[in-house]
Amino acid sequence: MALVKVDFEVGSDGVAVITMCNPPVNALAIPIIKGLKDRFDEAARRNDVKAIVLTGKGGRFSGGFDISVMQKVHQTGDITLVPDVSVELVVNTIEDSKKPVVAAVEGLALGGGLELAMGCHARVAAPRTQLGLPELTLGIIPGFGGTQRLPRLVGLHKAVEMMLSSKPIMSEEGKKLGLVDAIVSSEELLKVSRLWALEIGERRKPWIRSLHRTDKLGSLSEARDVLRTARQHVKKIAPHMPQQQACIDVIEHGVVHGGYSGVLREAEVFKQLVISDTSKGLINVFFAQRAISKVPGVTDIGLKPRKVKKAAVIGGGLMGSGIATALIVSNIHVILKEINSEYLLKGIKTIEANVRGLVTRGRLTKQKADGALSLLKGVLDYKEFKDVDMVIEAVIEKISLKQAIFSDLEKFCPPHCILATNTSTIDLNIVGEKTSSQDRIVGAHFFSPAHIMPLLEIVRTDKTSAQLILDLMMVGKIIKKSPVVVGNCTGFAVNRTFFPYSQGAHLLVNLGVDVFRIDRLISNFGLPMGPFQLQDLSGYGVAMAVGKEFAGAFPDRTFRSPLLDLLIKSGRNGKNNGKGYYIYEKGSRPKPDLSVLPIVEESRRLCNIMPGGKPISVTDQEIVEMILFPIVNEACRVLEEGVVIRASDLDIASVLGMSFPNYRGGLVCWADLVGADHVYTSLKKWAQLYGNFYKPSRYLEERAAKGIPLSAPASSIPKSKARL
């Protein structure tokens, strides 16, 4: 492991070069922050030091504050773990230094890294260096003076835009804005920075303390207009993100009361936000995203992923065409197989439309789109399969058809070929039952639309080889998906966990709760749409088929509602035919279709579960919990059975696969913030009132009784048989 340190070297020119060393991005870990203070103090004391250059090792300045420190704060509740960087280091030690300090910036200066650079008296950057303050993506605000210095260097409007969007700019734009003083080649960076620092000391270049500047802030009324507009925008697009409004408030405080007062206010608000639920959630997602790359028995046994140059996709329907699109835009040759020319042509046209859509949205250039489409070839037989590295089957959910396909694949594909199925529900052992290559069979479960949604569920059986899993993980990364390795069971991890979602909604409706109230409250919670609009979108046939699958697998906790059947019989099929719970008209948002209410009433009559024949009385919060807590309950079973490696895998999968709000940290993290005891007590009460659908799982009951977080490792409870 590389040594985390801060180097110090004084040249014959009298310039002390202070170098942050913490690869790969020179994160501002506690030892780095302490080392910077010590090295700057040493430079201040030494008579042979005329000026100072601050830089980072390995072609990178700094990627910002070490986020693991905030994770430790969340685990311990000890906010004192966050050091005083803003005043003690950046203001008192760097900005108020009696010797000039120049930042030599290369590669990236993000978050706290850019804040350190802005505290220096000048910034010299290499070309194509990334500069930005992305802290808001972690539920916090810049905490080392960034909210005060950036507006004073680039102007209020641009600074607000950079902070609220969290998007970096390049050093070339930074030079135009005034954030960077000069751009020089990487080879000349240190030399020019040393000379610049000396010239500041000799008064041949300006000695600028950016916190003292006001020339780019404009008048107070102009500043307040900019901030008022920003507040309105944030209120509209990020109502659940308190750090956005807090950032604007802190900027305004500095504009009104001065930069130093703004720095003090920023430090105070920063620490408040670090311990907020939003920060806990977003930082949990940050680390969950990184944890999925570690799969015991796969990534830690010395294997290297094999390259997939050519792939085949069987089935050109919605999923197959989306998968093929994801592959070709990532420079992988694709053979698309269909059963006849009509279906094949339709599949190819869908892929072409997908690629054009990516161009329209600015995610692909026309040139790259043309190159991607040139990698696609359509076929009606298996002749082209002789040299493919991977096959992904994406046909309808019919066991006999899938079994026949995999028997054929075994005959026509080379021995090293990955044999993957995109099934969302069928047991992989059944899919590969009639082959002798079960070690090559794996689930590659994409989420629709497959070329857009970022999650790839990699499903393994007891026989799937580790090499195959590693290969597919690499494919996932190449096609810009986040691969989560899961075990083999009905619905796998994500669909299994979320199968109570629509069932809970149907149960509430049959208990007398309004359909549109449920959808509105779930949307307000942060999901992109409620369960009934989601059913409209996916189609009732899909919902019926999935419901049947889960009813067969989990009959003890399945709620059977007549509502979908009644809707289908009335000629409704959601968005597919423009008639569902909502009215779908081109160019306008879905509107509640009140003519569906008599059908809902008929469902309630047939179901006959309303206590005393009257609708139940529930609060808005209870409605949200009665829909989401059963999902948490199923997640507990998934964790207990070892379907996922760790709880955070379910968190990232719920965010990327089901659009669970990332600021809530993912499903399990959110449940832990709510509290296992509250989830358990609520479910137990509802089970007594409304039946086994709400019956708490053993895992949840044990965790609640012992006060152990749901996300804690399995060693915290009695061991159960793992399924991975």
Secondary structure elements and their pairing?
Blueprint: E1 5-10, E2 15-21, H1 30-45, E3 51-56, H2 67-76, H3 86-95, E4 101-105, E5 108-110, H4 112-119, E6 122-125, E7 130-132, H5 146-154, H6 156-165, E8 169-170, H7 171-177, E9 182-183, H8 189-201, H9 220-237, H10 242-257, H11 259-274, H12 277-291, E10 310-314, H13 318-328, E11 333-337, H14 341-360, H15 366-373, E12 376-379, E13 390-393, H16 399-412, E14 418-421, H17 428-431, E15 441-446, E16 455-460, H18 466-478, E17 482-487, H19 494-498, H20 500-510, H21 515-525, H22 531-538, H23 540-553, H24 563-569, E18 582-583, E19 591-592, H25 597-607, H26 620-640, H27 647-658, H28 667-674, H29 676-690, H30 698-706
Parallel strand pairs: 2-3, 3-4, 4-6, 5-7, 6-9, 10-11, 10-13, 11-12, 13-14, 14-15, 16-17
Antiparallel strand pairs: 1-2, 7-8, 15-16, 18-19
Quick recap of the structure?
The protein is 48% helix and 11% strand. It has 724 residues and is α/β, with parallel strands linked by helices.
How would you characterize this protein structure?
It is found in: Peroxisome. Pathway: Lipid metabolism; fatty acid beta-oxidation. This is Peroxisomal fatty acid beta-oxidation multifunctional protein AIM1. In the central section; belongs to the 3-hydroxyacyl-CoA dehydrogenase family. Residues 491-584, 623-705 form the 3-hydroxyacyl-CoA dehydrogenase C-terminal domain. The protein has 724 residues and is an alpha/beta fold. It is 48% helix and 11% strand. The protein contains 30 helices and 19 strands. Strands 12-11-10-13-14-15-16-17 form an 8-stranded mixed beta sheet. The chain has a 6-stranded mixed beta sheet with strand order 1-2-3-4-6-9, with helices on both faces. The protein has a 3-stranded mixed beta sheet with strand order 5-7-8. Helix 1 packs parallel to helix 3. Mean pLDDT is 95; it is low at 716-724.
